[in-house]
Amino acid sequence: QVQVVESGGGLVQPGGSLRLSCAVSGSIFTIVAMGWYRQAPGKERELVADITSGGSTNLADSVKGRFTISRDNAKNTVYLQMNSLKPEDTAVYYCHARALRSYWGQGTQVTVSS
Questions:
Q1: Residue 26 in contact with residue 2, Cβ under 8 Å?
Q2: 3-class SS of residue 14
Q3: What pLDDT shows up at residue 51?
Q4: Residue 29: what are its φ and ψ, rounded to 5°?
Q5: What's the CA gap between 114 and 96, in Å, rounded?
Q6: Nearest alpha carbon to residue 103 among 28, 9, 20, 53
Q7: Collapsed DSSP state (helix, strand, coil) of residue 87
Q8: DSSP type of residue 100
Q9: From CA 47, how far away is CA 61, in angstroms rounded?
């Protein structure tokens, strides 16, 4: 079993920044990749960024140049640094851990509004 806990969401003005954190615990040696997804009201959940155990990263076209995914292995934590935020980035952001099965966090709300 893997436990996934997100933190760091909130309200920010357009153009602002936020950093989301995702801490994992449990059978973390089984994790092959971690990622951030988001779901806006009335829309499907979409991949924002992911990072493999080997360090390869992937970002959605809509966030390239603005978001960065990184990890701190010592802290078993993955981060999503979000800069130049836009109102269309407003969503619930979920952390995902891919192991023998998928594990999801509870989600954290990000609201970009003036």
A1: yes
A2: coil
A3: 96
A4: -65, -15
A5: 29
A6: 28
A7: helix
A8: S
A9: 10
Closest to 41 in 3D by CA, of 114, 110, 105: 110
How many alpha carbons fall within 13 Å on the CB side of residue 68?
8
CA-based nearest residue to 8, from 34, 33, 30, 36:
36
Contacts for 6 with CB less than 8 Å, ≥ 6 apart? 20, 21, 22, 93, 94, 95, 105, 106, 107, 108
Which tokens go with 105?
Answer: 């966090």
Q: Which two tokens stand for residue 65?
A: 């140049």
Q: What is the pLDDT of residues 4-61, one digit of tens each?
A: 999 999 999 999 999 999 999 988 888 899 999 999 999 999 999 999 988 999 999 9
pLDDT of residue 30: 87
How much is the average pLDDT of 69-85?
A: 95
What is the total residue count of the chain? 114
